Amino acid sequence: MIMSKQKPRVAIFDFACCEGCQLQFVNLEEQILDLINVVDVVEWREAMSEQSHEYDIAIIEGSITRPEDAERLEVIRSRAKVLIALGACATTGGVNKLKNNFDLDEVKKCVYGKDASKPHLATAMTKAVDEVVKVDFKIHGCPIHRKELVYVLKSLLLGKKPEIPEYPVCVECKANGNPCLWDYGQICLGPITRAGCEARCPTNGFRCFGCRGYIDNPNVEAAKDVIEKYNLNIEDLKSKMVLFGSTQEPTL
Ligand code: SF4
Ligand code: SF4
Ligand code: SF4
Question: Would you put residue 94 in left (φ > 0), alpha (ψ -120 to 50) or beta?
Answer without folding.
Answer: left
